[in-house]
Every structure is written in C-alpha cells, then in structure tokens.
C-alpha cells in the first residue's frame, strides 16, 4: 500500500500545473519580443496582438516600466534602451512599402538641378534612393547613408554636415552639424518625424535629432514633413515644431480628423501618396 501511495505522489509531483507567475513571465517575454520588432507599439495594438484586454496589457506593462525595461508614452510603449525607436537598420525595414510610396511621390515634385536638405530619418533615406534618377542635385545632409547614396552620381553635389557621428543613426549631430547647415538656403527642406499628435504637435525621441530637424525646416523655401501613417497619434519626448512650423506634410494614408483639421488651420498642405 505504501508503494502505491508513493507512486501516486510521484505522479502528482511530475504534473506541471501552470501558475499565474509563469503566465505573466511568458506574456512579458512576448511584449518585449514585439517591442524589439517594432520599436514602439500602442497599448491597443499590443492588446490585439496578445489577445487580451487593454486592462490586462496595462497590468502586464506596469512591472516592465517600473524596472526600466519599457518606456511608457502617450497611449504607447517602447523599449527604454532604444529611446522609443528601433535602431536605424531595423527602422528601415519597418513599414518599408509605405515609406517608399511617400518617397516616390515627393521625389516626383523635385526637379533636376534643385537643392534639397535632408535629415537622417529612414523615410528621408528612402527619398534619397528615389532621387537616384535625378541629375545635378545639390544635397545637404547629416546622414552618411544619404550622402553615400547620392554622392558621385549624375553630377550631384553633396555637402555632409560635420560633428559627432552617432553610430546608432549613421548621422552627424550636435552644435557643429546645426551650425553647418544653417549656412545653406535650399529649395526643399525635408525631414522625417517620429510622432505626430494634435496636442503635442510634431515630436521625436532624441534631443539632438529634434534640434537638427528644427534647423532643417528653417532653411527651405519649401519645408516638408514626410512620414508614414503609423506615426499619427503618437507623442515623442522632444518637440520639433507645431503645425505652423512647416508648409507641407506628405504621408501614405489620411491622418485622423483632428490632425487633418490642425494641418488645415495652420495652412499646411496635406499630400497623400497613392499606390
């Protein structure tokens, strides 16, 4: 009899009964995996991807924000180590078709022989690739990727801003870079942006990037924001400008009504790319 009970006890001991802590740990791992892929993600989208309620996601995210693993933003979360954005190479793969569509539309509005200033965003890098068919462009940029793409082809002149080269962005930033581009006046000043919100305006996740972008916008006869639709409704950490700080916004889908109204009220043109 004792052997029977001993065997039964061993059988029960071997049964793995899932506990709440294990479920939470698994979901925390899934949240971090999704953030590693996307850089930032809204709470609503996170709940949809995980198949749980908004309240459950908020509870799951709280210990991750408390221990510093995750950065909480307005209606969204991001990896704290990435400052709300994924590394440049990964961001180039995110929403690539949408960015390419916007870049192609904007490139069609630029003529041979004109001057253009570009910041180091991923959408501006897509624009540089769409400009490879143009000739005799004068290009001012802080992006090593854009400089490599457009230099020494089709009679282009490329001016590269100096300063500290950020390895995570492949771009020169800081006072020297801003001072350099302040000497130019161009036909088209184009930046990409990390977040567009009706209350906060246009914001980004890095102080030096935001300061550089602000100067770019001030140097063009035409000042343009290019972004894909996923940036609408987000708030970054650093303000770049309000809706009156540029002349045109180009994107791949119509923005929410409140943002469209803010653009209209500020007199900024809205351009939407179509496939």
Tell me which CATH architecture of the largest domain applies here: 3-Layer(aba) Sandwich
Strand order of the largest sheet: 6-5-4-9-12-14-15
- Compute the separation of the termini in Å: 76 Å
How is the main sheet built? 7 strands, parallel
Choose one word for the global shape. globular
CATH class of the largest domain: Alpha Beta
Please state the average pLDDT score: 85
| Unreliable spans | 4-8, 11-23, 82-86
Q: What is the CATH topology classification name of the largest domain?
A: Rossmann fold
Query: Count the strands?
Result: 15
Radius of gyration over C-alpha positions, nearest whole angstrom: 23 Å
Helix amount, in percent? 40-55%
Please state the oligomeric state of the protein chains shown: single chain
Structural class: alpha/beta
H/E series, N to C? HHEHHEEHHEHEHEEEHEEEHEEEHE
- Total count of domains: 2
| Percentage beta strand | 15-25%
Given the structure, what is the number of helices? 11
């Amino acid at each position: 009899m004792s052997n029977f009970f001993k065997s039964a006890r061993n059988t029960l001991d071997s049964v793995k009964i899932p506990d709440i802590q294990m479920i939470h740990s698994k979901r925390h791992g899934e949240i971090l995996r999704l953030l590693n892929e996307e850089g930032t993600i809204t709470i609503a989208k996170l709940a949809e991807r995980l198949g749980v309620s908004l309240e459950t996601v908020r509870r799951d995210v709280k210990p991750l924000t408390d221990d510093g693993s995750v950065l909480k933003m307005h209606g969204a979360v991001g990896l704290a180590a990435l400052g709300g954005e994924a590394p440049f190479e990964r961001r180039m793969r995110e929403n690539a078709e949408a960015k390419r569509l916007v870049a192609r539309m904007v490139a069609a509005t630029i003529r041979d022989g004109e001057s253009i200033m570009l910041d180091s965003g991923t959408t501006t890098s897509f624009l540089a690739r769409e400009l490879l068919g143009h000739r005799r462009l004068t290009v001012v940029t802080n992006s090593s990727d854009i400089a490599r793409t457009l230099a020494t082809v089709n009679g282009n002149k490329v001016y590269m801003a100096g300063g500290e080269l950020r390895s995570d962005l492949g771009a020169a930033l800081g006072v020297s870079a801003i001072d350099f581009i302040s000497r130019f006046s161009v036909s088209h000043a184009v930046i990409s942006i990390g977040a567009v919100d009706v209350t906060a305006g246009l914001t980004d996740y890095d102080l030096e990037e935001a300061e550089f972008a602000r100067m770019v916008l001030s140097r063009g006869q035409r000042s343009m924001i290019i972004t894909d639709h996923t940036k609408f409704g987000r708030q970054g950490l650093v303000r770049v400008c309000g809706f009156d700080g540029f002349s045109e916004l180009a994107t791949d889908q119509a923005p929410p009504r409140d943002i469209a109204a803010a653009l209209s009220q500020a007199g900024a043109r809205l351009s939407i790319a179509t496939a």
